[in-house]
Amino acid sequence: MGSYQKFYDQSITQPDAFWASQAARIDWVKPFRKVCDFSKPPFARWFVGGETNICYNAIDRHLATRADQNALVWISSEVEQTKKYTYRDLFDEVNRFAAVLKTLGVGKGDRVLIYMPMIPEAVFAMLATVRIGAIHSVVFGGFAAASLAARIDDAQPKVMITADAGSRMGKIIPLKPLTDESIKLSRSPPKYVVIVNRGLDKGMSTIPGRDMDYSVLRNKHLDDVVPCEWVESSHPSYILYTSGTTGKPKGVQRDTGGYAVALAASMPNIFATQPGQVYFCTSDIGWVVGHSYIIYAPLINGSTTIMYDGLPIRPDAGVWWNIVEQYKVSVMFSSPTAIRVLKKHDPAYLKKYDVSSLRYLFLAGEPLDQPTSDWIEKGLGVKVIDNYWQTETGWPILSAEPGIEETPRKLGSPSFASYGYKLKLKHEETGRQVGPNEKGVLCIVPPLPPGCMSTIWGDDARFVKTYFTTFKDEQVYTTFDWATCDADGYYFIMGRTDDVINVAGHRLGTREIEEAVQMHSNIAEVAVIGVADQLKGQVPVAFAVVKDTSKIGTPALAAAHEKEVMAMVDKELGAIGRPSHVYFVTLLPKTRSGKLLRRAIQALCEGRDTGDLTTMEDPAALEQLKAAIAK
Ligand code: AMP
């Protein structure tokens, strides 16, 4: 163990030497000739000329030393099943899937869209895709057909992989009908749909010629070995869509070499996890945390990864701690919302199992409140480490790094900058660097470190415009988060600077939800804002102006109308974006120039002072909102 400060300083003052030494953590078939090419800012290319393959690093290279070690343990409390795959088993399954993809014509650079529940085949599919040099785009299973269609149109996948259904709280959630509908809505439909039929949705229909049953295809390739496609370091490994201020989601494009190195380095340095140890990340493969810390990082590191399908409270609130005991989990990664869900249950569950193997619980995705942090830390007797990052970065921007040094933690702070991140807190208007404890916009001075997004899929100009043009004085990457930094270098995240909200650790653009609400024929205009929520951090709330007021003429009619609007969001975006309330009004509070007074609406909903409203066009609008909420 060394010193964090020394490690960090080296990463900033001698980035080439620093990253060259971290790059030795992965296997290269051809060495890189340059650590970083930043000749076209803000675009950065890491490990230029180097050739590698993520799947090779995650599986093949471990076969010599850990073929019989569990690579993946899948535990589903939904279907009450556990499946274990050694590195050898994983190798076999991934090769079968890779062979199937190849026979369907997928090759280097082709896109494969994966819309799947939390099942092992999803992991095989992702690894198989990168094995053959293709690019995956995993879409969270909770997104609806229209959202899926937008992602199909943007990524233009050759093949789509899905399952008949997932399961939530024991209820079957069919995925195939949504897949079919999304393809109907899409302008560039995939040629083939591969279906992992779990036998959950008995009524699933298929389209001959297009739909393929994975088990039939797999059986034809049981003994196939598909060589890894060696790709140049900056070859895209995947696209992952994330929300922003516009309705159109952004395809975060990740490279190969930089990502593999960043993840390989993060396991020992940040997550203090060694090869052979068991790592349990409770996220979903549809999110960045799932990509990085259920799949790629633990496997690249030669660890055992636990993949959990189900809720943290089913069959009871001890299910995760039972897993920790049974598999001797060394490090866990979860979210504050999940812990808040557990907090509603008997704390005795935290003491019911032997969790002495567990050394750290990392939490990320949203602000971690002190009561939640204290409750779990004391209850389990395990150190909680708050870490902060984004889909765009792929690994933590801010975190304590217990693998380097056990530094004191400060409550409410995800500690300090991870090595490689040169951070700057800039004044919103002037761009000057703010002083200690002064609020500023958290920015990263480019080049973005390895592992971070290389661009927006198919749209370099949008990448530059979205992330690098907030400040006129210098070209820096904006996180769109407010933060402060104290005199000891500890950062505190204070919320978003844009209209993105964070629901249970998942990022949603209010614009996306507004567009979904507006698909209802009786909605003329709508404002969606994020309102503080005890459990989920924030929830979306909608204020909608209706065209025909007779449809909300009575409380019963209004309630029915609210349900209709919610159903419209479920259909367009997915239940994940469903507003917790839809209030009907005839006017929205706006400035005289027509800008929605979002902060004022949010303050009103949260019972705070609405601030200066002198620019408001019509004060009656706010009164209406007040009355609607009071009802
Ligand atoms: P996502 O890209 O969906 O992972 O969302 C990233 C956003 O979540 C960040 O820009 C922050 O607003 C928020 N976030 C992530 N981690 C933290 C954290 N540890 N503390 C506070 N906010 C966080």
Q: Measured on Cα atoms, how large is the radius of gyration? A: 24 Å
Q: Number of helix segments?
A: 20
| Cα shape | globular
Q: Measure the end-to-end span.
A: 59 Å
The amount of beta strand, in percent, is 15-25%
Average pLDDT rating: 95
The CATH class of the domain at 87-229 is identified as Alpha Beta
Number of strands: 30
Largest sheet: 8 strands, mixed
Order of strands side by side in the largest beta sheet? 12-11-8-6-7-14-15-23
Report the bound ligands by name, code or SMILES: adenosine monophosphate
Briefly note the structural class of the backbone: alpha/beta
Low-confidence stretches: none
CATH fold group of the domain at 87-229: Rossmann fold
Approximate helicity band? 25-40%
Task: Please tell me the CATH architecture of the domain at 87-229 by its name.
Answer: 3-Layer(aba) Sandwich
